[in-house]
Write a structure and sequence with these properties.
The structure holds 2 protein chains of 2 kinds.
Chain A: E1 8-17, E2 20-30, E3 35-39, H1 46-53, E4 61-66, H2 75-81, E5 82-85, H3 97-107, H4 112-125, H5 141-153, E6 159-163, H6 171-186, E7 190-194, H7 198-204, E8 207-212, E9 215-221, H8 222-226, E10 230-236, H9 239-248, E11 253-256, E12 263-268, H10 271-283, E13 288-293, H11 297-304
Parallel strand pairs in A: 3-7, 3-8, 5-6, 6-7
Antiparallel strand pairs in A: 1-2, 1-4, 8-9, 10-12, 10-13, 11-12
Helix pairs in contact in A: 3-4, 4-5
Chain B: H1 20-37, H2 40-63, H3 69-93, H4 98-103, H5 106-110, H6 116-137, H7 139-147, H8 153-180, H9 184-209, E1 214-225, E2 244-255, H10 268-275, H11 303-316, E3 321-322, H12 324-329, H13 341-363
The chains are: A alpha/beta, B mainly alpha.
């Protein structure tokens, strides 16, 4: 991997805060033109890694390259190429959305005309045009989240770091966020998204890196995640017929307990196997009323990693 | 993954530094917009105006009949503006940085191209201009006092300039502390403590230190009195008797204050008072002659000028030879010997600059070490 690769390359990074080892050993790679998801339970080191990538924290160990530069030795080079949306909402209460964006533009060295034009464009793309001249304190949480995204994009960064971007967004805004991130990736930007909402990442991300207790435990593309062993839930009318049919074909199943209705969970190796089972059940005159993956592809990986969630 | 274990960074292709002035201006405008749109600052200005006005009217009433009315009133206003300014400036500056950190906006600024030095300079400038507004608001009273006469232009100008400088120093201390302390409340209190250390602490230390420089001294004190021979049995001097100068010698403990006056130097009041070129009355025009109370106006200094005189007499040390002229003349204005304010201002700038330098290092990202309890974002 060479320097002109761009994107993000992290190897063997560790960071400790006093006695707390926030990150033990993380390898992470986010290629340009793709959306990379950073997935892990609370306190697994996601935000710490984001801070290191955003050139706010120096790692104790390991090498980091963001857009080809080391954030420790070339922070300004990294900052001019990175847009960072923190998981906390930092709001200048009395400033209008436009003023916030123009101020940040000026701090990235943009001319007044450039940043004003860019600010207007971004307000359109995050759907905040009518709030452009309102003080930021009147914005709702979701609107502030969108303003925060616009702020991260003001200098047209090649690398975008989004820490929990979807939290507080209504369903409509989530769909817009998704299409915005996809179009940014299509433009060749490197996009990193950390989130807990795995079903959402399924639709946004091209690849995912799983971290747990400060370690990167798995890295896979969504295609890989989709072709792995997954659990499907099946419902039929009556359930006894379904149980009989499954037993006769030698398919192991368990009764799912955490749902309102009774349903069976079956472990299937691939989509081909799933379509075979569905066809077989229907042909055997079992009245199947529901047949669907139990969770998203990433959720399957997440659960299968069996990381402790405290 | 990678086959190259230690990728070398490409050379920077463009300069990514912000011009200092525009970066500072951006931060300054950001701060001022927030201040001007808040209510707190206007409330403080309003209260300030009322209090200064009250003091001024009260002062006019009390000293209305005295000589040097304009000078004393002007001095009073300068003293009060300094006192109140030292109370206001920490409030305006001491949460500049950690307030942003608490609000989550500091990290957003830190990921931009702005350097910690530019950030601190902008924050300092904004808090200084904010506290200068209090000085500007006092102008009606300052001009009123000047209109009463008795204050010459250099005295007025230097007083106002030194006031502005002292407010700037207090703001710099505040901004410096706010970049070091985690919590806004803690940094505001710490800044008040530091300002109090300068304004009150120096006086206390000076007072206590006089005990260390006590020396037993022989003082020759002279005074006018009627000769023994001219006083009758009832103790009344003869009507045609002439007063004569009599000297008395005694030993007593006196502090050699000239060795410890430097302790007072960093006091903001001393810095202002010592820098101002007060017009002293001509030597001999006040008293100086036997029974000379009626010749010439009394020398009545204002608050700040009294401080200036106090410092000069401390610099001069104990008077071991009190002449008859001195004993008759009442308070004699002392001319300036070695100015002490450059030393004081130097100490203050060293303190404020040191705090800002440490603060700048603390704000430099990426951070290797974090203070306990600090969250970056």
């Amino acid at each position: 991997m060479t320097n002109d690769y761009g994107g993000i390359v992290v190897e063997g990074v560790a960071r400790r805060f006093g006695t707390v080892q926030a990150i033990r050993d993380i390898d992470f790679e986010a290629p340009p033109g793709e959306v990379t998801a950073l997935i892990g339970p609370n306190g697994s080191g996601k935000t710490t890694l984001m801070l290191i990538l955003a050139s706010l924290l120096a790692p104790d160990l390991g090498t980091v390259r963001v857009a080809g530069f080391d954030p420790v030795s070339h922070p300004a080079e990294v900052r001019s190429r990175v847009g960072w949306m923190p998981d906390t909402l930092g709001v200048w209460d009395s400033l209008t959305s436009l003023e916030v964006l123009k101020t940040l533009g000026a701090l990235y060295g943009m001319s007044a005309a450039d940043s004003a034009r860019r600010a207007e464009e971004l307000l359109v793309s995050v759907n905040l045009t009518e709030f452009g001249r309102q003080p930021a304190r009147v914005l709702s949480r979701g609107q502030q989240q969108r303003l925060s995204l616009a702020r991260a994009l003001i200098h047209d960064p090649a690398v975008l770091l989004l820490d929990e971007p979807a939290s507080g967004l209504d369903p409509g805004s989530r769909v817009e966020l998704r299409s915005l991130l996809r179009s940014l990736a299509a433009d060749g930007k490197t996009v990193v998204v950390s989130s807990h909402v795995l079903s959402e990442l399924d639709e946004i991300a091209d690849r995912a890196v799983f971290v747990s207790r400060g370690q990167s435990v798995k890295s896979q593309t969504l295609d890989e995640a989709g072709s792995q062993t997954r659990r499907y839930y099946v419902q039929a009318e009556p359930m006894s017929a379904l149980a009989e049919a499954l037993q006769s074909y030698g398919v192991r199943f368990e009764t799912r307990g955490d749902s309102r209705r009774e349903e069976f969970l079956v472990q299937l190796g691939s989509t081909a196997e799933a379509s075979w089972l569905l066809r077989t059940l229907v042909m055997s005159d079992v009245i199947v009323t529901a047949f669907a993956p139990a969770g998203g592809a990433l959720e399957e990986t997440y659960m299968s990693l069996d990381t402790d969630r405290r | 993954m990678s086959t190259v274990t230690e990728p070398s960074s490409p050379q920077p292709v463009r300069t990514v530094a912000l011009p200092f002035r525009s970066a500072v201006r951006t931060i300054f405008v950001l701060e001022m917009k927030q201040r001007l749109r808040g209510k707190g600052w206007y409330w403080m200005l309003g209260i300030w105006f009322v209090v200064i006005g009250f003091i001024f009217v009260l002062g006019t009433g009390v000293i209305g009949t005295m000589d040097n009315q304009g000078g004393i009133l002007f001095d009073l206003i300068v003293g009060f503006v300094l006192l109140f300014g030292l109370l206001v400036a920490p409030g305006l500056s001491a949460n500049a940085v950690n307030g942003d950190r608490a609000g989550g906006t500091l990290a957003i600024l830190q990921v931009t191209l702005i350097t910690p030095g530019q950030l601190l300079a902008g924050k300092w400038l904004a808090s200084w201009v904010g506290s200068l507004a209090f000085l500007v608001l006092s102008c009606p009273f300052i001009f009123w006092a000047l209109a009463l006469g008795g204050v010459n232009l250099p005295e007025a100008l230097v007083s106002l300039v030194m006031l502005a400088v002292e407010l700037g120093v207090a703001c710099a201390i505040g901004v410096g502390v706010s970049s070091l302390a985690t919590r806004p409340l803690f940094s505001i209190v710490s800044t008040y403590m530091l300002v109090a250390l300068l304004a009150v602490g120096t006086v206390i230390v000076f007072g206590l230190s006089t005990l260390l420089v006590m020396e037993e001294r022989t003082v020759r004190s002279s005074y006018y009195t009627y000769p023994e021979s001219s006083i009758d049995g009832l103790g009344v001097p003869a009507p045609d008797a002439e007063m004569e100068c009599v000297a008395q010698t005694y030993t007593t403990d006196l502090p050699d204050t000239q060795y410890i006056t430097w302790i007072l130097a960093a006091n903001p009041f001393v810095v202002v008072a010592d820098a101002v070129p007060y017009t002293l009355p001509e030597p001999g025009s006040t008293g100086g002659q036997p029974m000379g109370y009626s010749t010439g106006p009394f020398y009545t200094p204002g608050v700040m000028e009294t401080i200036s005189q106090g410092v000069r007499s401390a610099q001069a040390g104990p008077d071991l030879e009190v002449t008859c002229e001195e004993s008759m003349g009442g308070m004699q204005p002392l001319p300036q010997g070695v100015p002490i304010w450059p030393l004081g201002l130097g100490i203050q700038l060293l303190l404020a600059g040191g705090l800002l330098l440490i603060g700048r290092r603390r704000l430099t990202m990426p951070a290797r070490r974090l203070t306990q309890g600090t969250r970056i974002a």
